[in-house]
């Protein structure tokens, strides 16, 4: 992968993850961005590299393509779920722009959870959990009965995209089978044209692993552990992700080499199957899996870098990100080097998150203080008021703070310390993400499973 000073990348989107892409690309390339709002990190990267920004609808293929042509970017990188589902990659490619990201057809693996489950069933039935597809209200009772007869709790999933906020779990969010039936009926009526996916609730440890692919070659990133629930100790509603960690070793401390190998084989089989079926996948396939007493089980696929998982991975990327993107585009991806350090990311959010806040909240940062602790900042749903003051926007995650260290807990502690000392305002976060207690808890859950010779 050779680097070139001349390259000019267009980014689409304005979350914390796009901020991390902008920072990485700005190291050696010009950055332009089509954004939904003036994200402070992205604006700074665009300004310092001499690119352009445009604020608009990131899901409008004509608007994004028009700006891409105007900006004269020679590559575009599209990664967020909604723009991928709206065919932004297809339109940019048709306009002759070298575009990295999944096409609308390939990203169906994320925007249609039933398609993903059927695909998974076809390549690895042994790792696919029990599921039922509900098409009409009449299907609800028979579908629920199949779980109830086996005494299985359920996860109710809308078929389409919900930004991580539509999936509800029994008994945490849905107290019993009747509550699952009611929520399923509500989804059928509130999301016309969609079905509902009911999946056996898995008991185990959820983790993600990203496969970076040019359509043929597949390079696995370090595995990551995400915290989707809003409050400490995994309570409260599901969110887009409150934080995440990766370990210095590429696998997480509770995973075995065999677990990683199994995920790799599944993802390779999926990529091959998509190519055979005429919808080749190129970009990032993010696999959500559960480690269970019986081995690896599938949960979901994303057709992109996860957020915050992608931020963790970029923090330990040992080579220019521009080169990785170019290699995906030119189908010359060989290997990717990662720094052997743990990486922790924590999101700060408004108190009402994941619900919309009634009003914008101002907060202050001592950026010099945060940087003195070697912390990385990635702005998300906020705008800058003055050099230290920022204001939240909308209902998304506001600011991600990341650290790398030899040990997960050390990085986590450093972020907590930085937030306590240098962030002022009404923002909340989870102290327990990557804490020593939480990592030890995960290791102790998996220990008996990992001593089973079949799982090592
Ligand atoms: N962290 C979950 C996601 O990116 O969808």
CATH topology of the largest domain: D-amino Acid Aminotransferase, Chain A, domain 1
Bound molecules: glycine
Mean pLDDT: 95
CATH architectural group of the largest domain: 2-Layer Sandwich
What does it look like?
The model has no long low-confidence stretch (mean pLDDT 95). The longest helix is centred in the middle third of the chain and has 20 residues, at 257-276. This protein has 456 residues and is an alpha+beta fold. It has 15 helices and 24 strands. A hairpin with a 3-residue loop joins strand 13 (229-231) and strand 14 (235-238). A five-stranded parallel sheet has the order 3-2-1-4-5, sandwiched between helices. It folds into three domains: 7-101, Rossmann fold, CATH 3.40.50; 130-200, Dna Ligase, domain 1; 204-442, D-amino Acid Aminotransferase, Chain A, domain 1 (2-Layer Sandwich), CATH 3.30.470.20. Bound molecules: glycine. Glycine binds at residues 164, 226, 240-241, 302, 306-307, 309. Glycine (GLY) binds at residues 164, 226, 240-241, 302, 306-307, 309.
Quick structural overview:
With 456 residues, the protein is an alpha+beta fold. 34% of the residues lie in helices and 25% in strands. A hairpin with a 2-residue loop joins strand 16 (283-292) and strand 17 (295-302).
Topology, element by element:
Elements: E1 8-12, H1 16-25, E2 30-35, H2 40-49, E3 53-55, H3 61-71, E4 75-78, H4 81-85, H5 88-94, E5 98-100, H6 108-111, H7 113-123, E6 131-134, H8 140-149, E7 154-158, E8 168-169, H9 177-190, E9 196-200, E10 205-213, E11 218-220, E12 225-226, E13 229-231, E14 235-238, E15 243-246, H10 257-276, E16 283-292, E17 295-302, H11 309-315, H12 321-329, E18 342-348, E19 362-365, H13 367-372, E20 376-379, E21 382-384, E22 389-392, E23 399-405, H14 408-422, E24 423-425, H15 436-450
Parallel strand pairs: 1-2, 1-4, 2-3, 4-5
Antiparallel strand pairs: 6-9, 7-8, 7-9, 10-11, 10-16, 12-15, 13-14, 15-18, 16-17, 18-23, 19-22, 19-24, 20-23, 21-22
Helix pairs in contact: 1-2, 1-11, 3-5, 8-9
Bound molecules: glycine (GLY).
């Amino acid at each position: 992968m050779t680097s070139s000073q001349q390259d000019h990348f267009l980014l689409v989107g304005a979350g914390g993850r796009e901020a991390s892409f902008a920072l990485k690309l700005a190291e050696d390339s010009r950055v332009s961005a089509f954004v939904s709002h003036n994200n402070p990190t992205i604006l700074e990267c665009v300004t310092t590299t001499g690119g352009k920004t445009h604020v608009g609808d990131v899901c409008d293929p004509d608007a994004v393509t028009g700006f891409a042509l105007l900006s004269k970017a020679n590559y575009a990188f599209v990664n967020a779920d909604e723009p991928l589902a709206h065919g932004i990659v297809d339109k940019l490619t048709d306009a002759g722009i070298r575009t990295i990201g999944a096409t609308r057809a390939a990203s169906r693996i994320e925007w249609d959870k039933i398609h993903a489950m059927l695909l998974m069933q076809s390549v690895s039935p042994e790792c696919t959990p029990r599921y039922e597809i509900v098409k009409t209200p009449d299907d609800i009772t028979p579908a629920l009965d199949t779980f109830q007869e086996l005494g299985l709790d359920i996860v109710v999933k809308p078929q389409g995209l919900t930004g991580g906020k539509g999936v509800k779990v029994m008994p945490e969010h849905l107290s019993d089978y009747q509550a699952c039936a009611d929520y399923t009926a509500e989804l059928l009526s509130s999301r016309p044209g969609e079905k509902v996916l009911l999946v056996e609730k898995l008991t185990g440890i959820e983790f993600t692993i990203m496969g970076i692919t040019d359509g043929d070659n597949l390079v696995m990133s370090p595995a990551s552990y995400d915290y989707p629930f809003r409050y400490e100790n995994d309570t409260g509603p599901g969110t887009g992700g409150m934080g995440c960690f990766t370990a210095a070793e590429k696998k997480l401390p509770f995973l075995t080499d065999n677990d990683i190998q199994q995920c790799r084989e599944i993802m390779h089989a999926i990529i091959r199957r998509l190519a055979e079926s005429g919808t080749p996948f190129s970009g990032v396939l993010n696999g959500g899996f559960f480690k269970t007493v019986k081995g690896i089980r599938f949960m979901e696929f994303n057709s992109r870098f996860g957020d915050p998982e992608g931020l963790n991975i970029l923090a330990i990327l040992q080579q220019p990100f521009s080169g990785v993107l170019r290699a995906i585009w030119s189908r010359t991806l060989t290997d990717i080097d990662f720094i052997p350090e743990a990486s922790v990311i924590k999101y700060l959010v408004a108190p009402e998150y994941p619900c919309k806040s009634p009003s914008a909240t101002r907060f202050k940062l001592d950026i010099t203080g945060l940087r003195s602790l070697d912390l990385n900042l990635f702005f998300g749903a906020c705008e800058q008021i003055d050099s230290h003051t920022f204001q939240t926007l909308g209902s998304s995650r506001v600011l991600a703070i990341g650290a790398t260290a030899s040990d997960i807990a050390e990085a986590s502690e450093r972020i907590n310390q930085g937030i306590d000392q240098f962030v002022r305002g009404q923002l909340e976060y989870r102290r327990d993400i990557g804490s020593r207690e939480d990592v030890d808890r995960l290791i102790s859950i998996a220990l008996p499973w990992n001593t089973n010779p079949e799982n090592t």
